[in-house]
Write a structure and sequence with these properties.
Blueprint: E1 2-7, H1 14-23, E2 26-30, H2 31-41, H3 43-53, E3 58-59, E4 62-63, H4 65-72, H5 76-100, E5 105-109, E6 124-129, H6 132-143, H7 147-156, H8 160-164, E7 169-172, H9 176-196
Helix pairs in contact: 2-5
Length: 197
């Protein structure tokens, strides 16, 4: 079984790159999407979030993302607390995912692959990097977020310099057609190295 991690700061282009892996037969485990499902559906996690952050934390069954984001992206302690509730559950879901995808090629897409130590469970890890201004423009177009909100998120994510030392491969995503070529070449390289092991 081949297990590859894909990470990068907000707006680096992870989702577009993971689609290339999917086209090449990789099963995708999107840890950020799994985390959102856990926050929405896991009763013990919901209870802990409401106890810690207050009754405004949810609107109906859904997390009040705006309210929570304003708190956690300006307070590292509270962000770490939220992550400590969710990360163990994400890892548990990943173990189940592996069991149901034996002998598959796996790609884990995660914004906090290194911060959460998820990378230690994988064979190789790819870091996508892009200039900050380009990342901000992508997110403004995609999510309609304000520049200041985006910068708050960027400020709590590890800088690329810190992640580069932990990554097996670093890809600069400026022009996506060039990035696609690099990713396809990298997939061939990873697969051939895996076959030799």
């Amino acid at each position: 079984m081949l297990k590859i991690g894909l990470t990068g700061g907000i707006g680096a282009g992870k989702t577009k790159v993971s689609k290339i892996f999917a086209e090449k037969g990789f099963k995708i485990f999107n840890s950020d999407q799994i985390a959102k499902k856990i926050i929405r559906n896991d009763h013990s996690v919901k209870k802990s979030i409401i106890n810690f952050f207050g009754t405004n934390s949810y609107i109906g069954y859904n997390l009040n993302s705006k309210y929570i984001s304003e708190i956690v992206y300006s307070d590292n302690y509270k962000l770490n607390y939220l992550n400590s509730l969710v990360h163990p559950k994400v890892f548990h879901q990943f173990e189940k995912f592996l069991k149901s995808n034996l002998n598959s090629k796996i790609l884990v897409e995660s914004a906090i692959l290194f911060e959460s130590n998820f990378y230690k469970m994988l064979d190789d890890n790819i870091l996508l990097i892009s200039p900050k201004a380009q990342r901000i423009n992508r997110i403004i177009k995609r999510d309609n977020k304000s520049r200041s909100d985006i910068e708050k998120i960027m400020n709590v994510q590890w800088p690329d310099k810190k992640k580069i030392s932990l990554a097996t491969f670093v890809i600069e995503n400026i022009n996506f057609s060039e990035t696609s070529m690099q990713i396809l070449s990298l997939i061939s390289k990873i697969e051939s190295l895996s076959e030799k092991k």
